[in-house]
């Protein structure tokens, strides 16, 4: 495994790989890897000749400098995990390497961001598509892997690739969960003991919404939201940020017959904000194998 710190070197490696007709799988991360990231790496390893993991805490994705500064980092630990999982190259640039000067041209995301996490994080997804555009240009991956826990991010990246004709396959990987159903996240370490115990009910609330859909042919979006809300309010003490039911990947509130859909929630605890979702087909079954 080789760690690459500069864009110039990463491009040189990419050119050699392309000249030898190697497929490249990219797993973009902000580090502090957990089992969910390892699942992305495993999927990439199974489907590509070469696996590249980018580790970059992107400052453009943070609305507050305090959040950027407090984001967990442990590159030595991450290196050991990546080596164990068969990663070939780690692209580990500094912020100065990625953004050597103030950006002259910015990217705007006009749809799919006025709901869910996007409604309370102005500018976040502009930061996401900016750094991913740079990574796609620098590394030119055959495929890029994204966890469905961040389903809104996946939906935005899907639009980015289609709108700008990037030659990369955007590959969704099902959410990896703890034994009790809690979605794995770097932020789970910030939960207090009692918060961690009750957080398992977030996923159960989503399944409650799924059951309601499967049991009612004439369900409405608001009814699903109310069912999930009622379950959460009974079982958790955390503050509900949002609950929604939308078409997927369009993330529209105007659901029509035959649409795939997402039920998503976000909950605030004292030192952590947890998000989770399930993605269903029109019949209420899981859309992606392994969910």
From TrEMBL:
<keyword id="KW-0436">Ligase</keyword>
<feature type="binding site">
    <location>
        <begin position="184"/>
        <end position="187"/>
    </location>
    <ligand>
        <name>ATP</name>
    </ligand>
</feature>
<keyword id="KW-0566">Pantothenate biosynthesis</keyword>
<dbReference type="InterPro" id="IPR042176">
    <property type="entry name" value="Pantoate_ligase_C"/>
</dbReference>
<dbReference type="Pfam" id="PF02569">
    <property type="entry name" value="Pantoate_ligase"/>
</dbReference>
<keyword id="KW-0963">Cytoplasm</keyword>
<dbReference type="InterPro" id="IPR014729">
    <property type="entry name" value="Rossmann-like_a/b/a_fold"/>
</dbReference>
<dbReference type="GO" id="GO:0004592">
    <property type="term" value="F:pantoate-beta-alanine ligase activity"/>
</dbReference>
<feature type="binding site">
    <location>
        <position position="176"/>
    </location>
    <ligand>
        <name>ATP</name>
    </ligand>
</feature>
<feature type="binding site">
    <location>
        <begin position="147"/>
        <end position="150"/>
    </location>
    <ligand>
        <name>ATP</name>
    </ligand>
</feature>
<keyword id="KW-0067">ATP-binding</keyword>
<feature type="active site" description="Proton donor">
    <location>
        <position position="37"/>
    </location>
</feature>
<dbReference type="InterPro" id="IPR003721">
    <property type="entry name" value="Pantoate_ligase"/>
</dbReference>
<comment type="function">
    <text>Catalyzes the condensation of pantoate with beta-alanine in an ATP-dependent reaction via a pantoyl-adenylate intermediate.</text>
</comment>
<dbReference type="GO" id="GO:0005524">
    <property type="term" value="F:ATP binding"/>
</dbReference>
<feature type="binding site">
    <location>
        <position position="61"/>
    </location>
    <ligand>
        <name>(R)-pantoate</name>
    </ligand>
</feature>
<feature type="binding site">
    <location>
        <begin position="30"/>
        <end position="37"/>
    </location>
    <ligand>
        <name>ATP</name>
    </ligand>
</feature>
<protein>
    <recommendedName>
        <fullName>Pantothenate synthetase</fullName>
        <ecNumber>6.3.2.1</ecNumber>
    </recommendedName>
</protein>
<keyword id="KW-0547">Nucleotide-binding</keyword>
<dbReference type="GO" id="GO:0005829">
    <property type="term" value="C:cytosol"/>
</dbReference>
<dbReference type="InterPro" id="IPR004821">
    <property type="entry name" value="Cyt_trans-like"/>
</dbReference>
<dbReference type="GO" id="GO:0015940">
    <property type="term" value="P:pantothenate biosynthetic process"/>
</dbReference>
<comment type="subunit">
    <text>Homodimer.</text>
</comment>
<feature type="binding site">
    <location>
        <position position="61"/>
    </location>
    <ligand>
        <name>beta-alanine</name>
    </ligand>
</feature>
<comment type="pathway">
    <text>Cofactor biosynthesis; (R)-pantothenate biosynthesis; (R)-pantothenate from (R)-pantoate and beta-alanine: step 1/1.</text>
</comment>
<comment type="similarity">
    <text>Belongs to the pantothenate synthetase family.</text>
</comment>
<feature type="binding site">
    <location>
        <position position="153"/>
    </location>
    <ligand>
        <name>(R)-pantoate</name>
    </ligand>
</feature>
